[in-house]
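Consider this:
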Amino acid sequence: AQEKKIFMVQGPYPIIRQLLRARGWVERKAPSTGRQLEQHCGDQNRPRLQTAPSSGGARQREEEEQCDEDPHGIHHLMSYLARDQLPNFIWTNFLETVDRQLLREDSVLNHFARVDAFTTKEGLCLSLQNLPWIEQADPNAFFPRCYRLGTRDDREAFIEDFRLTAARSLLKLALEEAGNRPVRTEQVPNSASKEGESHISHPKHSTAQPGSPLYPELVEEALEVCKQHLGVLQHEDIDRNTPSPCRTCIDWDNFLQQYYRVAHEGAGLVLTRQQRKQCQNLLQSLAEKLPQLDMEGKLNVWILKPGAESQGRGIICMTRLEEMLQLAWSCTAPSVQVGRWVVQKYVERLLTIFGTKFDIRQWFVVTDWKPLTVWFYRDCYLRFCSRPFSLHHLERARHLCNVSVQKWYKTSPDQDPRVPSDKIWSNKQFQEYLAQVGQADAWHEVLVPGMKAAILNTLRSARDRVRFRKGNFELYGADFVVGENLQPWLLEINSCPTMSPSSAVTRQLCANVQRDTLCLVLDRKDNPTCSIGAFELIYKE
């Protein structure tokens, strides 16, 4: 073992262990984690493997044997001999689990410190708020606007944003209703549409008028608020002390209650011809100043997220301001500190596939922070929800694409049968679909450049807060949704993306990205021209 390279793995990574052993490396067992690892493999991998095709049985046994850690074989003997040697390479799921005394000067470790500046929801929100001070870039062009409800300034900014969005949404609803055309309703999956046709959902809006009529000043008030807001946007570069349009003498509580009736309860609106023209002109002018005006839709849906949780825990979609503020300040949500919530604008105008919401998990690796060096993985995968997309039903099964959320739901009977049963697609399958709906160039011309730009801007916004050690690297998983216009919107970045396969697609892709990551961080040092698989260098300062 003296001449052999030593590695240590903590967590459910049988592929990493297998690849390093195949290179002739020797494993030093992580202190007191052997049993935990075996348990982790059992808990995390085995149930998911049952969703694989029938050939998965042999693979399952193979992975179980890897988890079993070769208790009597040559690897076990070599590990015993290596027990006192410091590892050359450590791959772990959490940086906190690594004993600093185990690190040699030239050890390679798969994490950096303080990456919570962009890998927690709170950290990402704060870093991207600061982006315009660091770069010539607008976070509103790729990251749905986001607020930390635990800080007073952010909470007040959110309340103002919610009110302004309600006023804009009311103008959109009024125009839609005044259009003297059949109101568009949400498409029913698998209706009389042609095979392969793109299903893009539009929220239905009833023209029924239940209850008492709306007070006639409602549209006028919305127009006045939007005019004032436009004035602020046009002059904000000159005078930052312009009073907020939300501080006007509108009774906001009353306005919002009436807006809820129109948006969510089907109450009708009547527009004069003059108001109609004003609405059109105002929205057109606002669109030039607000990059999110189109994607924000007209129902004012927001998504509340616990600030430091992952895997979709605690996330909820909501439409009423008072309920959101109440939830964020109640102690009823388990494991969430009061006030540690972020609230983010929900992308209402989504591209759906076969009437179903999906998101994209996109990998990238950072190998250095000074100079910042970023590698983008050319393969990725899509994750589908189990129920058709609808903004009138806000349950998790329709709106959260995380595998860890969707595994608890059966596919609903009204789901289009063309949605894959394991709820996963590769980017190749997505590209084929885009070609079928007449968008063959969108992947390479819109989606990939958009994802790369969002990732780079995010890393630049956070780099001064990250603590890095030369020789380390980190593999991240960024999650994106896609707007109706095919623009990607960044939702979050994960510092420990799952490598436990939930489908045939992810079994292959997760194995590939682990193999290519090892080539990138181990082989390239000695051989800069070696193969690094699907990685491409997208940035080096």
